[in-house]
Structure formats: C-alpha cells, structure tokens
Amino acid sequence: MTAQFSAETRAGEFIRQPNRFTDRITRDSDRWPVEPGRYRLIWSRACPWAHRSVIVRGLLGLSDAISLGTVDPVRDERGWRFAEPDPVLGITYLAEAYRAADPAYEGRVTVPVLVDTRSGRVVTNDFPQLTLDFSTEWLDFHRPGAPDLYPADLRPGLDALMRDIYTDVNNGVYRAGFATSQEAYDVAYDKLFARLDALEERLSDDRRYLMGDRLTEADVRLFTTLVRFDAVYHGHFKCNRNKLTELPYLWRYARRLFQTPGFGETVDFDHIKRHYHLTHDRINPTRIVPKGPDLRAWWY
C-alpha cells in the first residue's frame, strides 16, 4: 500500500517493513541542514502517512520553506509516478529519487519522502520522525502564531498516545485489511475497535482535542485515518463493526478537525477512493470504485 510492508507471515499477519531512509534534516547537521528552498516533500493525496506531513507543513507555515510535489493516486508496477515530470526534480517515477540515494534499493517506493533538490536523492522516508522534525527543527521558519504540535511538557503522554494510535488504528486498519488468515484479521479487528472505543471514551468529556484544549500531532495522526474510515477502511478493509458516523464523539471530533483551516482543504476523497480500490487487485479484483458515502456530511 502507501507505506512499506513485507510479505505476510505464515500466520497471515500483515507486517510493515521498516523505513529504509532515516536521515534527519536538523539545525546542527552538516550533511542535511535545515535550509529553506532546498528540500521537496513528495506526497500522495491518497496516503494517510503522507497526508499528515502536508497538514503539519501547512499548520506550521512551512509551505514557502519546503516545496511540495504530488504523485498520481494510482500506482503501477513501477510504483508512485507523477502525472507529468516533476517540475523541480525532473523525474517521472519517485523510484528515480530512491535509486539516486541507493542504486541497489529494491524495496517499495513510499510516500512521504523529503528529497534533496540539489542531488535528487531521498533524504528520508521516515514518516513518524519527519513531521516531528518539522515541529522541532524548523522552528525558525514557522509562521507567527503557529501551533506547538509537539509541546515539550506533553511529550511523555503524547508519545505514548501516538504509539497506541499507530499500533491499533493507523496501522491497525492495514493489519485487518491485508490479513490473509481469519485469526490475524480477527486480532487486528478487535484491537482496532478496542482502541476506537477507548478514544471515544476519551473524547466523551467534551474535550476539543485528544490532549485537552491543545491541538497536537496526535490529532493530525488520528485524523488522517478517521477521514478515510467510512470511505475505504469500513468496507474495503473489512473494518465494519461501526462506521465513524456511528461513533458520536469521534465523529464530532473528526468533523471539527475537518472544518479547521489546514485540514479539510487537504482531503481529496476522489484520490483516496481511486487509490485504494484501483491498487489492491487482490482485495478488489473488479476494480469498481464505490460512489459513496455522501461526503457532504463532513461540512454540514
């Protein structure tokens, strides 16, 4: 799918492959220093991991410092491609930037990535660290009044919450959707909905965000899964105990985020539905893209 993964184990469990390129762009780096205009963020509107990098980039006001390139929503056997050659990197397939960094690379080509525009090389596809570095290493280029998405005083609890969300929700929908045994699917399904129930309870005290009254990276990470839930994960990945719209506190929370500047305008349901339903031939051999759900509910 949109992030690296290995073949299923004999038990039919989906195992996500670690990210290959884990260099960091930091203020004190000699090799990859923070430098506006030097790096290009490549994303797919369909991918939740890439989506959150674009939301964080926008919320922090880094759009002028880090340029953006967008790949086509439908992958082919050569991986992510641009509808036309990228105007900055001059490449048609993202794999070209991967091979520039490692000519022997044979893994999956994933988004998001930060590419060094001078060398054309991938610097990092480490999506969990990438957005945290936007918050902590690019401070000098944040817009005035930008939110502190990774506040130091909240990090112990925030890190733990984000681990749980990643394990059971962000990656949990994939573990259910790509399982090839009933047992593996059942385990992933149960953990997913147990975590959603816990998050529903957490939000039942009318808090605005997961950490109370402060928007954090945890909200961005949960949002990009929630916004895809009814459109693809509920049916396509068989995560069908409840729709998001049937979990009242999570649904209210997700709609509030959607209507917050920096969130809803980055969502492309057409790209999302076409990517999932036209890429996973094993799950959807007919390649029919569903028309629903009615997405006007996100606004009204």
Largest pleated sheet:
4 strands, mixed
Strand content: 5-15%
Calculate the mean pLDDT score and round it: 95
Which segments are poorly predicted (pLDDT under 50) over 5 or more consecutive residues?
1-7
The total of helices stands at 9
List the strand order in the largest sheet: 2-1-3-4
User: What letter string, H or E per element, gives the SSE order?
Assistant: EHEHEEHHHHHHH
Number of strands: 4
Structural class: mainly alpha
Termini separation comes to 31 Å
Notes on the protein architecture:
Strands 2-1-3-4 form a 4-stranded mixed sheet, sandwiched between helices. It has 9 helices and 4 strands; from the N terminus they run E-H-E-H-E-E-H-H-H-H-H-H-H. Helix 1 runs antiparallel to helix 7 (217-233), helix 4 packs across helix 6 (182-202) and helix 4 (155-170) runs parallel beside helix 7 (217-233). Strand 3 (113-116) and strand 4 (121-124) form a beta hairpin. It is globular and about 50 Å long. The chain has 300 residues and is mainly alpha-helical.
Structural key phrases:
mainly alpha; 9 helices; 37% helix; 300 residues; 4-stranded mixed sheet
Itemize the secondary structure elements and their pairings:
Blueprint: E1 39-43, H1 48-60, E2 67-70, H2 95-101, E3 113-116, E4 121-124, H3 127-136, H4 155-170, H5 172-177, H6 182-202, H7 217-233, H8 248-258, H9 269-279
Parallel strand pairs: 1-2
Antiparallel strand pairs: 1-3, 3-4
